Structures are given as structure tokens and as C-alpha cells.
Amino acid sequence: MAQQQLVTDPEIYEKSHFNEQCKIAQYDSDFISRIDINNDGLTDAVVNEGAFSCDGARGPQCDGDGCPYNFYVQVKEGGYLLIATARIYSYEFMKRFGNMVFAFKMHPRFCDRTDSEPCEMIVRVRGVTFVTISKK
User: Taking the model in full, what pTM does it have?
Assistant: First the structure.
């Protein structure tokens, strides 16, 4: 596996990518959330690709499965590592059993279901790895 490239700042990295693709890129205040996603005391970043518009089209990569979210972990050597991209409707970041976890709302097929109720997946980040705790 190739070594992942460290980025200095996920917000600058992501915005420069979209600014190259769009004539007019507009970003909402929730485009990036800076939170400690892996409980290591360093501030990480979550980028919501649904919270920007490209040439007037809101969340151009979003579809019926949700929007892409990019999860970056800050490493103690300096910089950020992209550890995952997930296509989700939304998330809550909350404390469960003493650890901060994500509750993802996703398309029901991600929980192997065919009904219309969103799948809820509880995920913890350990180091640079996503660990699924439960899904329903």
C-alpha cells in the first residue's frame, strides 16, 4: 500500500481542489468541522461535500445515497491524513461509553436493507481506522 500523502490543512486542500473545478465555488459554514474524531487530543477535520456549491449546483457529488464526507486525522508529526470517505446523509458526533463516536445516517442498503428507513451506523475511529460498532 502506498504511503498516503499528508496535507497541511484539509480546508485549504479541499477548497483548492474545488476552486480548480468550478468557476464559482461557494462554501457553507459547515463545509468543514474541526473535531477530535479519534480521541487522541489532536483536532481532526471532517469535510462535507454537500455544504458547497459549484457554479450554482449545490453538492454536485451528492446523490440518492447521500453526500461524500472526507475524514482527516491530524498526526503528531504534523499535517493531516485522509483516512476515509463515506457517502452519508448526515452524522452526529457524540459520546458513547466514554468515547466519541459517529452516528451515521446512511442509505438503507448500507445496512443490507431494502426499506426506506435510513441505516444508522455507529462508528468509532481508533488511530486512523474506522471501527463499526453497530448498524441497524
Answer: 0.92
